[in-house]
Amino acid sequence: MSAGGAVPRPPEHVRCKQFGCQKYFDPTKAEQTICVHHKMPPVFHETAKYWACCPDRKAYDWDEFMKIPGCQRGHCSTEEPKKKFMGGCDVRAENAPKRIDDEVPIDPRKKLDKLRAGLESIGVEASTFDRAWGRLAAKHGDLGVVVSNMSGLFTEALTAMDSDEINLPD
């Protein structure tokens, strides 16, 4: 035994690379280990420290942070994680608003499908919408023209709402 009663680590043992584990183990017998670790890397944002998979358990002191128990069980590993930690930029990027116009389809049929889904989500019957664009398609024979007409009709209706005193307070 070494000074202080600590048992020396056998030279063939290595430290587990799973987030938060910190155990030493024999890499030739990794399947015999029990590893309680975190699924995602730590986040260091301003003075807060927490594991990305457990954002509700924050610590402001290093020792307290290291005492946060893991949320996953498995075997110890020697494989290095791809991302070792996260910071403010990562936190902001994950919570950034998503643009709804990033995936605007070019195909008129797909535009009509997206419009139908949006209208259904606010309570418009899909069959009512299908009849309306079906009549326009039969009249014009081109879905590009149908999309253009629908755009004009919706713009006209929304503009009329402004002039009909709908937006005035009671």
Polypeptide structure, described:
- With 170 residues, the protein is an alpha+beta fold.
- It is 36% helix and 11% strand.
- It is built from 5 helices and 6 strands.
- The chain has a two-stranded antiparallel ribbon with strand order 1-2. Strands 3-6 form a two-stranded antiparallel sheet. The chain has a two-stranded antiparallel ribbon with strand order 4-5.
- 10% of the residues are buried.
Order of strands side by side in the largest beta sheet?
1-2
Number of helices: 5
Which structural category do the helix and sheet elements fall into?
Answer: alpha+beta
Provide the gyration radius in Å. 29 Å
Which percent range fits the helix content?
25-40%
β-sheet strand percentage = 5-15%
- Low-confidence segments: none
> Could you tell me the number of beta strands?
6
Q: Tell me about the biggest sheet?
A: 2 strands, antiparallel
pLDDT average, as an integer?
A: 83
Which of globular, elongated, flat, extended, rod-shaped describes the shape? elongated
Span between N and C termini? 83 Å
Write the H/E string, N to C: EEEEEHEHHHH
